[in-house]
Each structure stands twice: as structure tokens, then as C-alpha cells.
Amino acid sequence: MSDYSWLQNEVTTAAWCWKVTRTDGTALCFTSHDNNITFSTANSTVYDITGTYKANTGFSPTATETSNDLTVDNLEVDGILNSNELSAVDLANGKYDNAEILVFVCDWSDLTNDILLVRRGTLGEVTSGKHGFKVDVRGLMQAYQQTVGGYYQKHCRVALGSTKCGYDVDSLQVTGTVTAVGTDGTITAGIAAVDDYFAYGSVTFTSGLNEGLTYEIKTFTDYVFTPFLPWIYTVAVGDTFTALPGCNGNLSTCVNIFDNVLNFRGEPYIPGNDYMTSYVTTDNTDTGDTAYVNTDDDITLKTVTGKITAIDKLSNTITTDITDIDGTYDGGTLEFLDVDDTLWLITNFTYTSSGGKFILTNSSAILKAVVGKSVEVIQRS
């Protein structure tokens, strides 16, 4: 049975210690004491606490929270960044994600006394600034809070470039140089791409104070990158970086940007909550792309027929041999047959008379278009 009588001494000789073991096997040991503390194999009991616990990196733990149910025990630790031990680069690059941690209190005056284990678990969310960091220490029950297995959803379940995705995202890597830095933390570079091409992607700096750091991008518009989190160090004009595009998990992105629909890991056409709570009406108008059933309620004013001659998924454009319609068809419908001869109706489109091109507002409809199939443009009442 453990003996903690040393905690009752009139003179306090307690020191906090914590040992972090990263997933790559690297172990770092720290203490709140003003001198280093070394535990040998002889000091270890049930847990491996061997190592030299260094006093040159300060930290301060918050009060611990422990319960007797299945909720996750929590402890928050604030620390000071030290380039020799804990660096902002390593934290930002995820080297401490899911690292194991032991937090205990020892008697620094007599290391043969039993230690008081405060927490054992893994590192959770890590946030860091220029001089310090904050990390959540999560108890062992955290493992039982994780979702196991896949589940049905409209968005893709896998990350771009992963094994299940199968796309070689590294082939799309581009290099850039910062030409302007905004007061809101944005950076501008001379990289031309469609809006949000790099959203959910990443930027890795290859020079400057942030060299080696990778940041996730929130938005990209008109050459401007906006990160999800602030840059750890100041970004200067002339800093160079590499950028990778991201994926928002939408089917339209998978089709139009990456042409990787065969590996799409979502169910985009499953009914949602809005569909489940909807009710039957006599209105045939649909704001999206759907299989269309014609009824006697429709009065066709004008109809022009033709065939699909080309499909451009990147620009969401269907090219036809129809070149003689005008603006009187604005607000009408575009109908075409898919490979199974199912009739599809599109209500959101714009028409370009030059070349007979129809630009679809809802890009998912382009999945159903087939070159050579019949197409009709209809103006209805």
C-alpha cells in the first residue's frame, strides 16, 4: 500500500512532475521544482517514471477534475516554450498530438518515497502563442468517447490525399511568395486559382520566422489566404511557402476540382431533416437538381431541343448544339436524359449563346449529364 505520510510534513517538499512520451517514442520530463530531479529504475513502481525532470521549462497545472462515472477526467496545463525542449514548431506540426502523459507529485527531498499519481492519460487540444502554450490532459476514459466505424453522411468521410481518397494531392503543390500582409492576419501571394481552392488546405512556410510551420487555411479569395489560427510568428513580405489545396467534403468539389468521384466516401443523396419534415404540394418547382415527373399542370410555352456535345466539370458547363435561344428562357428549365434515360430537370442555370453553353449553378447536376444525350430548354408558365 502506498505511503504518503511525507505530505503531512510541516515543511512542504512536494514537487510536481510530468512526463510526456510522444508517439515517436521521444520522452520529455519536467518539474516545478527549482532543481532537476532524476528518477532511476529503482524509483519506478507501476509506472515508468525514469528520466531527468528538468526545471528550466516552467509549467503550472490547474485543479484536477475526477469523477466516479464514465466522464472524461480533465486537467489543464500552462507552460513556457523553450527552444531546447518544447518548441512552437513541434507543437504546431502535431508532434505532441495523442502523446501519453504522466502527472505526479513527488518528495524532492527523498525520492525513495512513494509518488502521488495525479493523472495518466493523453494530451488533447494544444494551443500555443509566441511564448507559451496550453494543453488539455485527458484521462483514460477519453478513448471510450471516440466514434468507432463509419456512419452515413452527405459529406465525404475521409481526408483529401488519404489512402481511401486515393488522390495524389502532393502533385498539386504550388510555391508562392508573400506580397502583402493584412492587418487581419491574411497574406497575399501571386497564386491564381478559383475561390476557396486552398480552403481546408495547408500552407507550409519555407523561409522567414515561420519556416517549417504548417497552417490550415480557412478561405482563399483573390490571391488572399486566411488561416484558421493566427500565424505563430510574424509573416513578412518576401516569405516563401508551399501550398496544398483542400477539400470541403462536398460531392461537387470531388467532381469538379479533383475528378475523383469514384472514391467519394459520402452519401450525398440521402434525405435530410428538411426532406423528412416536408409535405406534398401541387407545385412541381424544385430549387435543386432532381428527377422530374411531368404533370398536366405544366403549360409549355417554348421548347428547343438539341444534344449535349461536351461537358466541362471544372466550370460546371454543358455545351450543346443549341445556339438560337434568347433571354426569354431565363427562369425556365433545362431537361436532359442521363445514361439510364431518366429525365432530369435543372432550374438553376445561365445560358451563353456563344457556343450553346449552359452554366449550371448547382454543379452536382453535371454528374448526370452524358455527351450525345438529348437536351431540351423549356419555358414554362
Q: How would you sum up this structure, described in words?
A:
- It is a single chain.
- This protein has 381 residues and is mainly beta.
- Residues 282-300 have low confidence and may be disordered.
- It has helices at residues 88-92, 251-256, 273-276, and strands at residues 14-21, 27-31, 37-39, 51-53, 59-61, 74-80, 100-107, 116-128, 132-139, 174-181, 187-189, 202-205, 214-221, 224-227, 240-244, 289-291, 300-312, 317-320, 333-337, 343-346, 349-352, 357-360, 374-380.
- The chain has three helices and 23 strands.
What layout of secondary structure does this protein have?
Layout: E1 14-21, E2 27-31, E3 37-39, E4 51-53, E5 59-61, E6 74-80, H1 88-92, E7 100-107, E8 116-128, E9 132-139, E10 174-181, E11 187-189, E12 202-205, E13 214-221, E14 224-227, E15 240-244, H2 251-256, H3 273-276, E16 289-291, E17 300-312, E18 317-320, E19 333-337, E20 343-346, E21 349-352, E22 357-360, E23 374-380
Antiparallel strand pairs: 1-2, 1-7, 3-4, 5-6, 6-9, 7-8, 8-9, 10-11, 10-15, 11-14, 12-13, 12-15, 13-14, 16-20, 17-18, 17-23, 18-22, 19-20, 19-23, 21-22
β-sheet strand percentage: 35-45%
Globally, the shape reads elongated
Number of domains: 3
Helix content bin: under 10%
The overall pLDDT average reads 76
Low-confidence stretches: 282-300
DSSP strand count: 23
Number of helices: 3
Computed over alpha carbons, the radius of gyration is 30 Å
Strand order in space, largest sheet: 16-20-19-23-17-18-22-21
The topology string of helices and strands comes to EEEEEEHEEEEEEEEEHHEEEEEEEE
The helix/strand class is mainly beta
Tell me the major beta sheet.
8 strands, antiparallel
